[in-house]
Predict the structure.
Amino acid sequence: MPRPRKCRRVCLLPESDLFGPLKLQKPDAEIVFMTVDEYEAIRLIDLEGMTQEECSEKMDVARTTVQRIYNDARNKLAMSLVEGKLLQIQGGDYKLCDYEDSGCGCKRCCRKK
Ligand SMILES: [Zn+2]
């Protein structure tokens, strides 16, 4: 039986969930699917400048998990950039941050007032 997967804490959902080349769109372009937790790892590490360690605490998962999520996410970004594939962000094992309890300290946290 598969182990139940632990939800990753996510502070912000993407405003747009579909990305791709604005020029030279191929009608049959392949779609690369990125999960919301992968998107969050990119956001925290590449935009907020967190280390994988900090990111793992923030998302409430093991560092090895973050490493895997992050690598997958980077690979998908590269495929989209280099091969002109569409990138769609959807799904994944995540729960939205509950700012009140955790006080996550995230600048862009969706729950922050
Ligand atoms: Zn948050």
Summary: The first strand starts at residue 8 and ends at 10.
